[in-house]
Each structure stands twice: as structure tokens, then as C-alpha cells.
Design goal:
There is one protein chain. A hairpin with a 3-residue loop joins strand 7 and strand 8 (474-481). Strands 1, 2, 3, 4, 5 and 6 form a 6-stranded mixed sheet that branches. A 5-stranded mixed sheet has the order 8-7-11-9-10, with helices on one face. Strands 18-19-17-20 form a 4-stranded antiparallel sheet, with helices on one face. Helix 6 (108-115) packs across helix 9 (136-145) and helix 13 (195-215) packs across helix 24 (447-459). 45% of the residues lie in helices and 15% in strands. It has 30 helices and 20 strands.
Length: 741
């Protein structure tokens, strides 16, 4: 059996086992295209298309029917005489693509553009002709999926075509819906191509189109694309997985037994619900097998139970019965209704065990949720209608973008006033990942960079929400791919200005810029206002988003660092605290009651008035003055040395007041120069300075300074804290490990 036939057989068997009507796209396409009368009666396919469309959109009137007929006539006449590699008339392809979209519930405008999607690319029809006949909206969709010519773009044609398509999707997400259906039909018919070409198309489908289908929530297309690509790229693994599915089908159906028990529970609870078995497709079974480390799968692993209800509240009522009448597997519970996935998916997920310990996974959703889960953005149809739907549900559309132009399609329900105001401005079907993708693609300097970055971006299949606060004044939320770092967040918030980020607080605590963010984290970015701020080369190790990586790479290329850029700037000449030749104080600044005893200020803790101090007699009868918290005082007391009372008095010591001050900061160029300049500006002399090696982008500077007046210490520490990047300044605590935040 060929790979294509094996996939078809699997999907037909899946539909029979599920119990719910499943879209059998290929069978439907064959019946519509090759039905009674074979190819001589192709116009019958448009009649079938209209029937399917009206089943999904009962309000589609005569205007919609006439629009689809005119689109078919133009497509059939323009493609007449062209054939596919299989030998079939070329018109079978746009018809099959349109039938796929019709079964998924696409509205008239999308179907019209789908019938015409290859006319501009492969025939003499022009965009101006399409615009004249069908309006600007259909034209935008057709133009969005039209490939760029290899004659004009060479090897860059494919990546630049995808770039063009994504930009068009930014204005109308239905462009990508048509492309996905187009690729599905092409993958179904790959059997007539050479194996190397099959593999090339399958890899692009795996790396780009399948992730896009997932992000747009079109599961009906995604699952079939996955299985067909799996069969082409990994035929041996696919065959083994199919054999496992076939062997399980011969065993008693465990899920059928649990499904019947569940129906009885819901009937007794007076909850109107439909319970069906949803078999896993081949790739899903293969992934589960890998997750289990190759262990044998049980009967309940080959499918899940699906419960469909009418209202959101019914979902939670069903959940209550499930967890009351069965034993819940708490670790498997997920609420995607309260917190929908970024691809519009909403459902309750749980797992239960019956009285015999048999476990089954259960999905609970409304019928509307199910339509969106299967068809994603296609189920939302016209972005204006989707905007109305979200507004009526009290949700704010998530993205502001440019519109697709004037309305040109037929068969749509007239929008309300509020939705009409946002048409052309707000497309509620566009999530944050698309906005990020559209942003960074503008900066991709060449097709190869864009193509690589696109595949890397699409490989990140989850999103997180991070709450931002800029200095406590401005706040908001940003959406980032899972695994994003603080570097990614800086560029997401500030664009090119992200290079000015010198530190972050995550959930109120200072953190390295390479910290990976988690869903719900609170983030405050600390920025340097200096124009010369630049990203560090190691930021590329932390950046995961294309926007950040492209911006950092471009900046480093345009602004190469000098050879000694990583070395600390030299400190300016130390300014003495007192004018040369000034006389030392005549009186000591600290006194003791011991007659004739000389008083010295300890160098270990550098006490300064009005510090609380104590003294100890040392050799020669002198008294050393320590701060009471100095560890030396504890050691002397333990050794049996009695403290001597001392007190401050007015005056200046002969060498001036000395204090040791530590500054904790985020590492950046010129930090040492900025700190020493501030110290000198305060009229304070530096006796010594030490800089510890940076750790996790943080650095500690230690300064022993000579103060002109003890009151200058407070002002000095305040001025040092004001230096960009400095987050703490404090007095030294000798022999005590200082916490670094």
C-alpha cells in the first residue's frame, strides 16, 4: 500500500471510530470533481460547492451563489487546456482547495478568492481584472497567495514569496487559510513527483506550514498535513505506528465502555451532551510513544473522549460530574476556557479513571469551541464578523493592523456599527505572534536570514504573557514565545532601544539579562540614557526571538567594539579632599576616659561620625575605635578584651575621615569612569579602589575614600546611587558576606 493510500485509509477508519462526523476532504473532493459524467461534467462540482457552502452558511443568498459561479467560470476558462502532473485538468486543483475551505466553514469571499488563487500566477488574468470583477478584498487575497517568479528572484523566490504572503496575512489572515488548503491538496497529490521533490516539499511543509496551521488553530488541516509529511519523511516509523493502530483496532474498545458510562452519568445529571471517541492520528500516537520511552501503549492511549455541550457553563457542569463520579487524574487537568491558547483554542482537558482503574483522557467543549478547534481562524470567517463576536463576548480585539481594502465579496452578513468602525483597523483573528513576526521580518536583511529566522520563530510553539512596568509609571503586557529571555523582552518593548537595557527586575528582584521568563512574570527594564549604550556580544547567547537577534547582530556589525572595549575605563586622577598643605586638626575626633591614651580610628571598619562606636586597648596603650557592628569587636570580646567607652567630638583627624563604600551595579562600559567622576565631583578623595570580576552581568566596586567632612558621606552615597546601572550603595561590613540581591 502506498503512503498516500495508507494515510487515506487511516483517516477513514478514524472517522468511523470517532462517532462524530469527520471531514473526509479527499473523498468529498473526488466525488465533487469526478462524480457522474467524470470530467465532462465539472460544472457539477460548483453545484456541490454551493450546497456545502449553504450548509455551513444558511444565509448565503443568491448574490453569494452568483459570485461563486462567476469565479468558477473565470477560473475554468483561464485554466482551460492546463493539466496537473497527474494528468487531471488543472481546474480540479482550485476546486479541491475551495471544497476544503467550504467544509471548514469559510465564507463567500474566501471561497471566491480560493477559486481564483492560481489565475494570476498561471494564466493571463491580471489583478486589475480580478479587482474589476470581484472587488479589492478578493484581489488582496489572490495577490497574497500568488507566488513570485523565479525568473525575477532566483533562489530567493520561495522565501520572498513567504515573506510577501505573511505581510498580506498581516492585513487579512484569510490569505494564510487559502495557502494552507492549497498546500494540503498539493501534499495529497505528491505521489506523482520524484522522491527528492516530495521530500523537499514535505520539509518546507513541516518547518513552516504545519506550525502556521497550529498557530492559526486549523487542526483539521494540521493533523492531515502532519500525517502525510510523516509518511513521506519517515516511512518506516509511519508504518510501525500504523501497525500499532491497526492492532489496537482488533482489541475490545476500552474507550467505548467508558464513553457509555459517561453518557449515563450525564443523563442522570440532566446535562445535554454528546459523547464521542476521538481517535489519535498517526503523529499523535507516535509522539505519545516517544513520550512513554517506547513503552507499550494501552487501549485508552489511542484516543480521547470528546464531550460537546451547548454553553460554557455546561462545560464546568460536565467537569464536576466527571470529577465526582470518576477518579480524576489531577495532574492532567488544564483549563483552556479560562485561559485560551494563543491559537484561539478553548477546551477543558482532564483524565479520569473508572472503578477498574482504566484511564481515559477527556476533552470538554461547546460546539462552537469545537468548530474553532477544528477550523481555527477559518471558523471565524470575515474579520468584521469576528470582531462583532468578540465584542459581544466582552473581549478586546488583540491587534491593530492595516485593513485589506474596501469590501468586495458577496454573501456576508452586514456588520454592526461597532464592528464597522474597526473594519480596516482591527483584525481580531491576529494574535501577538503574528504582530511580532511582521515586525522583525522588516528588518531581516536578506532572504536567507529571513528564511532561517522564520523557521526558528515558528519552532517556538507556545507563548507566555509578561507584565511590564517602566519605572513604575507605565505598565502593560507583552506576549513572548516560551523560553524568551529578558533580552528578548527589552527588544520587544523598546525595539532598537533595547540596546540601552543595563538590567532588569523580575518579580521585583534584580536578575541577569539572560534570565528566561515564565508566564505571568512581572518585568521592569532598567535603561541607560547614554547615547553610546550598546548591546554586549554575549546577548546573542540569550536572545531567542528573531527581532532581538537581528537587531543585536546588525548593531554589532555596524558598531564594532574597540579592542579594549571590555576593559574598565581608567579612573581619573584622584582629587585630594583637602588643599595641599592644610594643617591637620589639633584635637582628636574621638576621646576616651582613659587618661593619656591615644585614640585611633580602625582601618577595618572606617568609623565616621555619627556611627555608634566602641574602643579596645591595644599594644602600647592606644585605643582603637571600631563601629559597634564591626566583627572585630565580637572577636575581641570573645578573647576576653574589655571594651572601652569612646565618644565623638568636634574636629578633624590628621589624615581626614576615611570610609569604605561598596557600589553594586549592572556591568556596563564606562561604569568605573562614571563612578570615580561622581566621587571627585563631590569633593571626595579616593584612597583606593577595587573592582571585582563581573558575575551574571553584575559587578561590585569597593572604594576607600577620604571625606572632607563626615556629613559628606550621605551625599556621596546618594550621588553614587544616581549613576545609571547602580542599584545599591552601602558601607563596608568587614568579614561579613554581603548579599548581592
Amino acid at each position: 500500500m502506498s503512503a498516500d493510500n495508507a494515510v487515506d485509509a487511516e483517516r477513514a477508519d478514524e472517522a468511523r471510530r470517532r462517532g462524530l462526523r469527520r471531514i473526509d476532504l479527499r473523498r468529498l473532493g473526488r466525488a465533487a470533481l469526478l462524480g457522474p459524467g467524470t470530467r465532462d461534467r465539472l460544472p457539477g462540482a460548483i453545484e456541490h460547492l454551493i450546497k456545502v457552502h449553504r450548509a455551513r452558511h444558511p444565509r448565503a443568498g443568491s448574490e453569494a451563489v452568483e459570485t461563486l459561479r462567476r469565479a468558477y467560470v473565470l477560473a475554468e476558462s483561464s485554466h482551460r487546456g492546463q493539466t496537473r502532473k497527474s494528468g487531471e485538468p488543472f481546474i480540479t486543483h482550485p476546486l479541491a482547495v475551495t471544497l476544503i475551505l467550504a467544509e471548514l466553514g469559510a465564507e463567500t469571499t474566501t471561497l471566491t478568492a480560493s477559486l481564483l488563487h492560481d489565475t494570476v500566477e498561471d494564466t493571463d488574468v491580471t489583478l486589475d481584472q480580478v479587482r474589476e470583477e470581484f472587488g479589492a478584498e478578493v484581489t488582496h487575497l489572490v495577490d497574497g497567495v500568488t507566488k513570485l517568479e523565479k525568473v525575477d528572484h532566483g533562489a530567493a523566490a520561495e522565501p520572498e514569496t513567504f515573506r510577501k504572503m505573511l505581510v498580506a496575512t498581516g492585513s487579512d489572515v484569510r490569505v494564510m487559510s487559502i495557502k494552507l488548503a492549497d498546500r494540503l491538496h498539493n501534499v495529497r497529490t505528491l505521489g506523482v513527483m520524484r522522491p527528492d521533490k516530495q521530500a523537499r516539499i514535505a520539509k518546507v511543509t513541516r518547518d513552516v506550514l504545519i506550525p502556521l496551521a497550529e498557530r492559526l488553530g486549523v487542526q483539521a488541516l494540521k493533523t492531515e498535513l502532519e500525517d502525510r509529511v510523516f509518511a513521506i519523511l519517515h516511512p518506516a516509523e509511519y508504518a510501525r505506528t500504523q501497525a500499532m493502530i491497526a492492532a489496537n483496532a482488533q482489541r475490545p474498545d476500552l474507550l467505548a465502555t467508558i464513553a457509555e458510562d459517561l453518557r449515563k452519568v450525564l443523563r442522570d445529571a440532566d446535562i445535554a451532551a454528546e459523547v464521542a471517541i476521538r481517535p489519535r492520528h498517526a503523529v499523535s500516537v507516535h509522539r505519545l510513544l516517544l513520550k512513554r520511552g517506547g513503552a507499550e501503549l494501552g487501549g485508552g492511549d489511542f484516543g480521547r473522549l470528546l464531550v460537546l455541550v451547548g454553553e460554557d457553563a455546561d462545560c464546568y457542569a460536565v467537569l464536576g460530574e466527571l470529577h465526582t463520579c470518576f477518579t480524576p487524574v489531577i495532574a492532567e487537568f488544564k483549563d483552556f476556557i479560562a485561559a485560551p491558547k494563543f491559537n484561539l483554542y478553548r477546551s477543558l482537558h482532564t483524565a479520569i479513571a473508572d472503578d477498574q482503574g482504566r484511564i481515559a483522557e477527556v476533552l470538554v467543549r461547546t460546539r462552537q469551541m469545537h468548530r474553532v478547534a477544528e477550523a481555527g481562524v477559518i471558523a471565524l470567517g470575515d474579520p468584521r464578523a469576528a470582531a462583532e463576536q468578540l465584542e459581544s463576548a466582552g473581549r478586546t480585539p488583540p491587534l491593530v493592523t492595516g485593513g485589506a481594502g474596501a469590501a468586495g465579496g458577496a454573501g456576508r452578513t452586514a456588520p454592526g456599527t461597532a464592528a464597522a468602525e474597526v473594519w480596516g483597523k482591527v483584525d481580531p483573528t491576529q494574535p501577538g505572534w503574528l504582530a511580532r513576526l511582521l515586525e522583525w521580518q522588516r528588518e531581516a536583511p536578506d532572504p536567507d536570514t529571513f528564511w532561517t529566522a522564520l523557521r526558528d520563530d515558528l519552532a517556538q510553539d507556545r507563548e507566555i504573557t509578561v507584565f511590564t512596568a517602566e519605572g513604575g509609571d507605565a505598565s502593560g503586557t507583552i506576549r513572548l514565545p516560551a523560553g524568551a529571555s529578558c533580552v528578548d523582552a527589552a527588544y520587544a518593548v523598546h525595539g532598537e532601544g533595547g540596546r540601552r537595557c543595563i538590567g532588569v527586575r523580575v518579580n521585583g528582584r534584580l536578575a541577569p539579562l539572560g534570565t528566561r521568563l515564565r508566564d505571568g512574570d512581572s518585568l521592569q527594564l532598567l535603561l541607560d540614557d547614554a547615547a553610546a549604550s550598546r548591546p554586549a556580544a554575549d546577548w546573542l547567547e540569550h536572545a531567542t526571538t528573531p527581532a532581538a537577534r537581528i537587531a543585536i547582530t546588525r548593531w554589532l556589525a555596524l558598531h564594532p567594539a574597540p579592542a579594549d572595549d571590555d576593559q574598565p575605563a581608567p579612573a581619573p586622577a584622584v582629587r585630594p579632599a583637602r588643599a595641599a598643605g592644610s594643617a591637620p586638626a589639633a584635637q582628636p575626633v574621638a576621646v576616651t576616659d582613659l587618661p593619656g591614651a591615644a585614640v585611633r580610628l580602625a582601618r577595618c571598619c572606617t568609623p565616621v561620625p555619627p556611627d555608634a562606636v566602641t574602643g579596645f586597648v591595644i599594644r602600647g596603650g592606644a585605643v582603637t575605635v571600631h563601629r559597634v557592628e564591626c566583627p572585630t569587636t565580637g572577636r575581641m570580646a570573645t578573647a576576653g578584651r574589655a571594651p572601652v567607652p569612646v565618644r565623638w567630638r568636634d574636629g578633624m583627624p590628621a589624615g581626614g575621615y576615611r570610609a569604605t563604600v561598596l557600589a553594586e551595579a549592572l556591568s556596563r562600559p564606562r561604569l568605573l569612569a562614571d563612578l570615580t567622576e561622581v566621587i571627585a565631583t563631590e569633593g571626595v578623595g579616593i584612597v583606593s579602589a577595587a573592582v571585582e570580576p563581573p558575575q551574571e552581568h553584575r559587578v561590585r566596586h569597593t572604594y576607600t575614600v577620604e571625606l572632607p567632612d563626615p556629613r559628606a558621606l550621605t551625599g556621596l552615597m546618594r550621588a553614587m546611587r544616581a549613576v545609571p546601572g547602580v542599584y545599591d550603595v552601602y558601607r563596608a561590613k568587614p568579614a561579613v558576606t554581603v548579599s548581592r540581591g
